[in-house]
Fold these 3 entries.
Entry 1:
Amino acid sequence: QVQLVESGGGLVQDGGSLRLSCAASGRTFDSYAVGWFRQAPGKEREFVVTISRSGRSTYYANSVKGRFTISRDNAKNMVYLQMNSLKPEDTAVYYCALSSVGYSGSSKDYHSWGQGTQVTVSS
């Protein structure tokens, strides 16, 4: 069973950058697509971006397209989320999770959620 741990969150000013990491345990990490989701206080969990098993295909939410970049290193069991030009509305807890059905924008297709990492963007 694969377990995920997110890191890299923090407090940043409007327009700043952060790089989130998602570390996976287990030997079958490259069998799964990986997605990032976020949840702001009082709001539902929201899809951010996903990456295919090989890393060759990605799919971004319109709200982050052009500002966020996802990548993965299967040799290191890592997925990264580079976030640039951050805005206050990006403030949320960010989660990574695995998908066995290919890369998808629906949280229902994901499992093995990490504990999340807080990102706060101040105006």
Note: The radius of gyration is 13 Å.
Entry 2:
Amino acid sequence: QVQLVESGGGSVQAGGSLRLSCVASVGIAGTMGWFRQPPGKGREGVAAITTSGGSTAYADSVKGRFTISQDHAKRTVYLQMDSLKPEDTAMYYCAPKYSAGIWSISGLYNYWGQGTQVTVSS
């Protein structure tokens, strides 16, 4: 079973930046995704990266502002978040996906971490 630990969340003002980290207990062969869940809403895909080829995908709402990257040696996936907006406020989670399918479908992912809270004030 894979264990994931997210960190890097916090409270920032609109326009600020944060970098989230997700450390996996083992190397992942597949896709690593970042998801978020705003208060009272469902979980939505933010970004994903294939662990072998490094191909990336982003939700339209974060394109141009967020960047996903990885460090294989550290078994870590990062989410650099710039130009943050109040609507980015959510609990952020990472998870691996081993199967084919659309990257933004949360049901295809396994072994969710505990999440890290991001709060953006206006």
Note: DSSP finds no helices and ten strands in the chain.
Entry 3:
Amino acid sequence: QVQLVESGGGFVQAGGSLSLSCEASGRPLTSWSMGWFRQAPGKEREFVAAITWSGTGTYYTDSVKGRFTISRDHAKNTLYLQMNSLKAEDTAVYYCAVGRNSIALRSGTVDYWGQGTQVTVSA
């Protein structure tokens, strides 16, 4: 089993920045990919970003490219999401996720989910 705990959500004005963290514990995540999803009120959960085990592969949904950056620190077993130039439409609950590879994550096949952290961007 893997436990994922997100932190760093909050309230920010449009144009501002937030940084999310996700600390993993439990079984080793060797070779697994990690990522972020989000769910806005009344909408389905959607893929945001993913990163491979090596960190050399990163993937983003089009709406966040150039504004969000995903990274991971193996020594700390932590995943990060740096969000800049935030927009009102980025408002959602953000979920950390673990999948067997980045292709699986991008297709929505997730093995472990975090509990989510709220991000609210005021217009």
Note: The two ends are 39 Å apart (CA to CA).
